[in-house]
Amino acid sequence: MSQKKSNRPVVDGWVVLDKPVGLTSTQAVSRLKRIYNAQKAGHAGTLDPLASGILPVAFGEATKTVPFVQDGEKAYRFTVRWGAETNTDDSDGEIARTSETRPERAGIERLLPQFIGDILQTPPQFSAIKIAGERAYDLAREGTQVELKARAVTIHSLTIEACSPEETVFFMECGKGAYVRAIARDLGRLMGCFGHVTALRRTRVGPFLEEDSFTLDEIEAQGMAADALLSVEAGLSELPCVVVDRDTAARLRRGGSVVLRGRDAPPGGVVYAACGGAPVAFGEVVEGALVPSRVFNLPF
Questions:
Q1: Which of 12, 48, 89, 212 is flagged as catalytic?
Q2: 229: β partners
Q3: How many CA atoms are closer than 13 Å to the CA of 31, on its beta-carbon side?
């Protein structure tokens, strides 16, 4: 017997949620899925319950663009409290080590260059890293000590916004995979004062900025849900776009490659094709031809 089709309307696009503290990313996506009555949804980068800020959520065909947003640049504002390290490297964990030492601003600033650029960073024990198929945080909750390998990450900038003997507010711009909690842990250990994150706000994910975001209350308000919904193309805005005609679009949608002509044709790399204002496919340009890796089921 064939499955009965859903009567829910198809929703395609992005919502840039300003996630509140206390809500998991999964809970936030579930709330939005109910608001939009969406059949399919996903998010571009988990935020811990302690954290607030930008959580881009994709619906329908926009979920195909999640990897491009997830791999984009990130920005965070976070507060580190000195004098204690916790087992989670944030205020949700149990205190593991303490110190009476407190750092001075000048001392912190001298160490910051060590955390900028292409660096090796060991993820926190409580992280989503998979070890033999299991999440590190699940193993940590069971009391299992695991050896997490240092990974290469890129920190573009790390600056101090405010500083007192007890805590420091930082602003960080980084690439994929960098952990704010690891910055707090490693800085604290280097200075011998220990530290953990007490507040964290994400202000950018890929093309999406703080000013693009809406709170749950705003989205749930009368008529605001439509205003918050961005196009599928919003998730592709950091990729080059190739405009094609309807015949070419139809060929791409069937999975066929097409030769790109004209002086504006990109010589290589990942691009997306659009027709009539709608994305058709994305893929890699190889020897002058666009080879689609994923196509969109959107009208054009």
A1: 48
A2: 15
A3: 19
- Tell me if 90 sits within 8 A of 197, measured CB to CB: yes
pTM of the model: 0.90
Range 22-54 burial, b when 16+ CB lie within 10 A, else e: ebebeebbebbbebbebeebebbbebbbbbbbb
48 noted as active-site residue: yes
Name the 3-class secondary structure at 268.
coil
Question: Contact 251/283 with Cβ under 8 angstroms?
Answer: no
The token pair at 178 is 């960098």
Q: What does pLDDT average to over the chain?
A: 91
Contact by Cβ (8 Å): 34, 216 = no
> With the C-alpha atoms ordered 278, 284, 289, 293, is the resulting torsion angle positive or negative?
negative
Q: Is 166 exposed, middle or buried (0-12, 13-18, 19+ CB in 10 A)?
A: exposed
pLDDT, tens digit (0-9, with 9 covering 90-100), for 116-174: 999 999 988 766 666 666 666 666 565 667 777 899 999 999 999 999 999 999 999 99
Tokens for 16, please give them.
């840039």
Q: Helix or strand or coil: residue 110?
A: helix
Tell me the per-residue pLDDT of 180-208, one tens digit each, with 9 for 90 and over. 999 999 999 999 999 999 999 999 999 99
Residue 258 gets which letter from DSSP?
A: E
Report the largest interatomic distance among the alpha carbons of the chain, rounded to a whole angstrom: 71
Range list of H helices, the chain: 25-36, 66-70, 105-111, 136-141, 180-191, 216-220, 224-228, 246-253
Whole-angstrom CA distances from 171 to 64, 174, 192, 208, 224 are 30, 10, 22, 17, 31
